[in-house]
Amino acid sequence: MSDKLTVRQVGDVTVLDAAGRITLGEGASTFREKIRELVSDGRKKILLNLAQVSYIDSSGIGEMVSGFTSVTNNGGQLKLVGLSKRVKDLLQITKLYTVFDAYDDEAEAVRSFS
Amino acid sequence: MLTIRLPRNSLMAKTQDSLPSTLDSVDRAEELALREAESFGLDEDDRMQFGMAVRECMVNAVVHGNGYSSNKVVHLEIDRTEEQLAVTIGDEGSGFDLALLPDPLAPENLMRQSGRGLLLIRAFVDEFDLHVRPGGGTEVRMIKHHTKS
User: Fold this and answer.
1) Which of A63, A109, B38, B123 could be stapled to A103 by a disulfide with Cβ–Cβ 3.0 to 4.6 Å?
2) Which of A58, A63, A70, A73 to mutate to probe the B interface, most B CBs <10 Å?
3) Which ranges in A6-102 belong to alpha helices (H)?
């Protein structure tokens, strides 16, 4: 799905840094697999950092929705940070801006996890 | 691929291609559309949106229309005049009824993984038309008008 996905820990929050293009393609299952891995590892507070994402299409949005559902169904929370104007526009058009808890600032996003 | 350049005040450029039903073709069509969008004079945001509309339409044709079949191609046509940039994408699938597609903005569909492609296409172009392609399959025509400031 993405050119690059890396995981780091900030306190008890797992930050998933995505970079590059998030589109249908050979890496389409990478994000799903990573979320599945984090969920099975017992991570409950996941922050998806999209600051380095240059492009996202409807398949990428679908993967984010799927990841959100997977984390939520396992009693966790998935939030977003670092959305570009273009990504915000996409979430507005698809009405998903009301679904995802999104932040501009990482520290604020980390603090928001209950 | 055939590219023809014609005199001013008429068709400025016309690109026609038959692309295999692969994801590489999705990238190829997006590249061609972005190149024409730049020649057309769209700004960066409009180019990105137009390119995404073409990309989403190509994904529909390759994945849902032709089902990745090596026996089927996607028909791509890009027409650029001074006034408008038009892209026509046709598949060789069995077609579908637009009215039967679930509304991706309905509350009960909001969390579905797929089904947002046409919503984005319509949001990013000025004109959108979907019809049965002559000879079978589905054909989509998308137009972006020039907005002179």
Assistant:
1) A109
2) A58
3) 30-40, 58-73, 85-93
Instruction: For helices B117-124 and A85-93, give the axis angle rounded to 10 degrees.
Output: 110
Residues in chain A with pLDDT values less than 70:
1-3, 25-29
**ipTM score of complex:** 0.88
CATH code: domain of residue B78: 3.30.565.10
Rounded to the nearest angstrom, the minimum Cα separation between A23 and chain B is 10
Task: Name chain A contacts of B105, Cβ cutoff 8 Å.
Answer: 94-95
Q: Residues with Cβ < 8 Å from B140, sequence gap 6 or more?
A: B57, B60, B61, B88, B89, B90, B121, B128, B129, B130
Q: Domains in chain A and their CATH numbers?
A: 4-112 (3.30.750.24)
pTM for this predicted structure: 0.89
Q: How far apart are CA B104 and CA B110, in angstroms?
A: 6
Q: What is the reported pLDDT for A1?
A: 46
pLDDT at B30: 96
Give the torsion sign (CA, A108, A109, A112, A114).
negative
CB contact under 8 A, A62 and B113: yes
Q: B135: pLDDT confidence band, cut at 50, 70 and 90?
A: confident
Which residue on chain B is closest to A66 by alpha carbon? B113
